[in-house]
From TrEMBL:
Residue ranges crossing the lipid bilayer per the database entry: 12-31, 37-56, 68-86, 106-136, 148-172, 192-212, 232-253, 273-295, 307-329, 335-353, 365-386, 406-424, 431-457, 463-485, 505-526
Domain (TRAP C4-dicarboxylate transport system permease DctM subunit): residue spans on this chain: 14-525
Molecular function GO labels: transmembrane transporter activity
Chain coiled-coil ranges: none
InterPro entries: DctM, TRAP_DctM
Stored PANTHER family: SIALIC ACID TRAP TRANSPORTER PERMEASE PROTEIN SIAT-RELATED, SLL1103 PROTEIN
Function statement: Part of the tripartite ATP-independent periplasmic (TRAP) transport system.
Membrane topology: Multi-pass membrane protein
Cellular component terms (Gene Ontology): plasma membrane
Domain of life: Bacteria
Keyword terms, alphabetized: Cell inner membrane, Cell membrane, Membrane, Transmembrane, Transmembrane helix, Transport
Primary location recorded for the protein, binned into one broad class: membrane
Protein name, as recorded: TRAP dicarboxylate transporter, DctM subunit
Organism the protein comes from: Verminephrobacter eiseniae (strain EF01-2)
Length: 573
């Protein structure tokens, strides 16, 4: 028996953790208790050295000193302030009026607003609950299919897990030992593609099953001109002018850089060009709408002015946070701090900032940050013991022995993550499973940024899995459970059942799995957003030490020792 335990302590330890979790014990304490218990067992069996436990305090202090993890409370605070200041309500109402006249317009508005909320709030619960409270009654009022309405709201809310600034990407970067900025750059395009897939599904339904996604009736379109016109030509004209300005600035970026720096600049990085050009176009629209409102010229329609004032502030905040991170101007932690400050300023300008709002946001941020920190502490103790009993070697032999090499490993890992996501959320998966998979992926030659984004997309399904998906629980909490009288239409509205929510989530889970397959088949979806590695040819690097100096001043400037000797000579003189 003792020999069996000695040779199989790693798999027994992992199985013990699963048992603890299935029994319902808190994740953080299950990890810590398992780690300490099996550490003592290993010491008694002679597998572990007792001195190994001396590393626990050092690891705990290392977690406390990790600056990257500071981005979690900053981005959480930013999202909560924006969500509680009414930004989601304004976005949903305005974009719903903009897209409402077309079939499927309300569902498209939910997808679009879900992507915007993901890029600003980054909190799934806030996004799903906000859209469920605001959009679901309107969609039910005008005859949307209940399954589609529930599915599109839940799925759009989960975009916060893959579109930067995502909390799961911060944790994945920390666990994989990679840069958060690179993880954000790699996830940006897949997040947009996933948003496009959701919108494409809604468009297909509008084309082939239009009765499921009816358009808003004329009486429900409130953002109209006094003469009844829609005002869309004015909005399209403003968009065309701002788009032309954005393209012009993009083409002239080298010239603008040369003018600003006073030196000739021949090339500007693509990400910097995109961010700066979009900022200029967005600011132009905001200035035009501001001048129109102040002067009362009436050059812009009501919907054009409303869309501009509602969309521009969150877009500028996205550029402020993600733009500075992508350009290398700020670290993710600094970007999160700027985002939190920007959210406070936006809430104050909107007249929504109060001590009660601030207290609630700070309280929730503190709870979530402590939750993450305790799980990380427990995972650290578990991981230390697991490494001591050669757990990584066991996992490596288990996974590298799979047929198919890299492809077989990726298929097995994604199938395992998809299955575990039925029972564990992304925090638990990130802290328990990812540290075990990262060394094997690195040994197989898999890029860890690409691997992290792939796992992030897969772990997003943990919010949508019937019957345990958290996004489905959030929606169930705000969806009508009983028949009620709609105050606008004066009609009795049937409730949304739990089974309708589950059935509505299935197509979007399949879309997420399709995105996983696309990233595996086309790695460039992730790698195209990353900075190219600079490769130096060491054979061509040489130092010419025989060349005589041109003059004494240059030699002193290039040679620190010579400069120091010259300074001593000057002092003696």
């Amino acid at each position: 028996m003792e020999l069996f335990l000695t040779q199989n302590l790693a798999p027994i330890m992992f199985a013990g953790l699963i048992v603890f979790l299935l029994l319902g014990f808190p994740v953080a304490f299950s990890l810590g208790a398992c780690g300490l218990f099996f550490a003592f067992v290993g010491i008694e069996l002679g597998v572990l050295n007792a001195s190994l436990l001396q590393a626990v305090p050092l690891r705990i202090f290392g977690i406390m000193e990790n600056d990257t993890l500071l981005a979690i409370p900053f981005f959480t605070l930013m999202g909560l302030i924006l969500e509680r200041s009414g930004m989601a309500e304004d976005l949903l109402e305005t974009i719903g009026q903009l897209f409402g006249p077309v079939r499927g317009g309300l569902a498209l508005a939910v997808v679009f607003v879900g992507a915007l909320l993901a890029a600003t709030t980054g909190v799934v619960a806030a996004s799903v609950i906000s859209m469920g409270l605001i959009s679901l009654p309107i969609m039910l009022r005008y005859g949307y299919d209940r399954r589609l309405a529930a599915g599109v709201i839940a799925a759009s809310g989960t975009l916060a897990q893959i579109i930067p600034p995502s909390l799961v990407l911060i944790i994945l970067a920390n666990q994989l030992g990679r840069s958060v900025g690179d993880m954000y750059k790699g996830a940006f395009l897949p997040g947009l593609l996933l948003t496009g897939c959701y919108a494409g599904y809604v468009i297909l339904l509008a084309l082939f099953k239009p009765h499921l996604v009816p358009a808003l009736p004329p009486q429900a379109r409130s953002l109209r001109e006094d003469d009844g016109r829609s005002g869309l030509p004015s909005l399209l004209t403003l968009m065309a002018i701002c788009s032309a300005a954005t393209i012009a600035v993009g083409y002239q970026m080298p010239a603008l850089h040369s003018w600003w720096s006073g030196e000739t600049v021949g090339h500007v990085a693509l990400d910097e060009t995109i961010v700066v050009a979009l900022c200029c176009g967005v600011l132009l629209a905001f200035v035009a709408a501001g001048i129109n409102k102040i002067t009362g010229l009436g050059l812009l329609s009501r919907i054009a002015e409303r869309v501009t004032f509602v969309l521009i502030p969150p877009l500028l905040l996205i550029f402020l946070v993600l733009g500075t991170i992508f350009l290398g101007v700020a670290t993710p932690t600094e970007g999160g701090a700027m985002g939190a400050l920007g959210a406070l300023i936006m809430a104050m300008l909107r007249g929504r900032l109060s001590m009660e709002l601030l207290r609630q946001a700070v309280n929730t941020t503190t709870k979530l940050s402590c939750f993450v920190m305790f799980i990380l502490l427990g995972a650290t103790i578990f991981g230390l013991t697991f490494q001591g009993v050669d757990g990584p070697v066991w996992v490596e032999h288990l996974l590298t022995g799979l047929p198919g090499g890299q492809l077989g490993f990726l298929i097995a890992v994604n199938a395992m993550i998809f299955f575990l996501a039925f029972f564990l959320d992304f925090f638990e998966l990130s802290f328990i499973v990812v540290p075990l998979l990262a060394p094997v992926a690195a040994k197989l030659g898999i890029d860890l940024i690409w691997f992290g984004v792939l796992l992030g997309i897969n772990m997003q399904t943990s919010f949508m899995h019937p019957p345990f998906g958290f996004a489905l629980f959030y929606l169930r909490s705000v969806a009508p459970a009983n028949e009620y009288l709609d105050k606008v239409s004066q009609k009795m509205i049937q409730p949304v059942t739990t089974m309708q929510i589950y059935r509505g989530a299935v197509p979007f889970v399949l879309i997420q799995l399709l995105m996983v397959l696309l990233v595996i088949c086309f790695p460039g979806i992730v790698s195209s957003g990353l900075d190219k590695d600079v490769v130096y040819d060491l054979d061509k690097v040489h130092m010419d030490i025989d060349a005589p100096p041109q003059n004494t001043d240059e030699t002193s400037a290039d040679d620190p020792l010579k400069a120091f000797q010259d300074s001593l000579t000057q002092e003696k003189k």
